[in-house]
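User: Quick sanity check before I run a bigger batch. Here is a single chain. Can you write out its predicted 3D structure?
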Amino acid sequence: MDVNNGPSEGSGNGTMDIEQSLLQQFSCMGTTDKEELVQQLQKLLGSSLNYSTAAFFLDMNNWNLQAAICSYLDIENSTKLPSMTLVQDPVASESESIEPNVSFQKVWHIINNGPDQWPTGCYAQCSDGNSFNGGRVVLPPLKPFEDTHLTVHMVSPPTPGVYQSKWRLCTEKGAYFGDPMWVIVTVVEEGTMALTQQLSSFSELGASPQPEVAHNPFIPQRSHLEHTQVFL
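Assistant: Done. Predicted structure follows.
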């Protein structure tokens, strides 16, 4: 298969400058390890390129890094990515406490804030961190300024700790677009949530839980009459 190692005839000067800059960056790279080639391609082209897409372009170009970059830029420059923003920006420090191995849902309110309708086949997937067993979610082709609620079914990890997950929207070809979406979960010991809820209910009532006092048979118990004053 013939591979075009240079910019296409329709590429502009900006594309040529980008390609020349990238070629200078990897001119000293020499490796045949496929995993390392994928990582290098992702590093050079930025976070918009996921693993499967990087591997696809490398395989298509017989694992030639230079040819894979040129092919990707030729296609990317001719394709405009969709737009997406969160209706409410995520708070990175926001976390939810949950017990191990518990099913839960994460919902994001998203909107197409661009001038074009999303193409068919867009989906959401975990791009970094713990996926919480959440799978790929296919999205409808939203029209401009149309919104939807993205729901992902997840399961908390089995070991206590703090976990985070980064999710991105992808085109059918695997290019990331839109705002990143975060899930931050604190997994606590089993039974901790019930105790926390009990303490919270006492706090809401303005009282603190009274400790249970064990009966001591060696201390005489005073009768109710001994506490009663009689008024004549």
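Residues 1-12, 213-220, 223-232 have pLDDT under 50 and may be disordered.

User: Great, the batch can go ahead then.
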